[in-house]
Amino acid sequence: MFTGIIKDVGRVAGLVRSKGGLRLRVQFPNAAEFSTLSVDESVSINGVCQTVVAHGDGWFEVDTVEETLSKTTLGSLHQGSLVNLERAVRPLDRLGGHFVLGHVDCAAVVQAVRELGSSRELWIAFPDAFSPFIVSAGSITIDGISLTVAKLEAQLFAVAVIPFTFAHTTIHELKAGRRVNLEFDILGKYVARQLGTLSSAAAADSKINEEWLREQGF
After folding, report:
1. Distance CA 110, CA 37 (A)
2. Terminus-to-terminus CA distance in the chain, angstroms?
3. Would the pTM of this model clear 0.85, i.e. be above it?
4. Which end of the chain is less packed: N or C, by CB atoms within 10 Å?
């Protein structure tokens, strides 16, 4: 589990494609945070939870499988790409963002990046199927960054990005047309699931149907 508070911006140092998968090598400048990574540890790369399979001085590697490549933007990375990095949360860490699993729901497209004085407003289009999981003032993860939904329209939302986040993540690279990884709030997904289950159960238990209405003279 992660919090969406980015600890470092790494750089892709190598990509090897094999049998539909991808071996990804990432370099990290923050030795204090990432030098103690170990094999089998989880790490978030642009919001995607991956497992460390090898590591060395200033780098680590992960194997990205077909399922992940089909749902995220990791397959579009290239040599030199910057990526947001976060290690898995420890029980004693402060939860500065929100509960982030690193299980990306979909890739979405940036529609606009607007300058608003000292901040930026980022507009992103998302598939309608995920509409039940997003609310205004709720949390959302964009490329692993925990952000707050500032504005919400049909299949479109905006987040406000403070200068610190803009400077210390890959958001400063985003432009209209770029694809990003989205993870919707897990709490919202569970609530939507439960409400849907309850609605289905209520409909199944109801005696009001076309035959019953005819019997009642409707």
Report:
1. 32
2. 54
3. no
4. C
Q: Which two tokens stand for residue 164?
A: 């610190």
Q: Are strands 48-56 and 42-45 parallel, antiparallel or unpaired?
A: antiparallel
Amino acid identity of residue 169, one-letter, is T
- Amino acid symbol at 121: E
| The residue type at 98 | H
For 27-79, how does the pLDDT look when each residue is reduced to its tens digit (9 = 90+)? 999 888 898 999 999 999 999 999 999 999 999 999 999 999 999 999 999 99
Q: Count Cβ atoms within 10 A of the Cβ of residue 153 and give its class: 0-12 exposed, 13-18 middle, 19 or more buried.
A: exposed
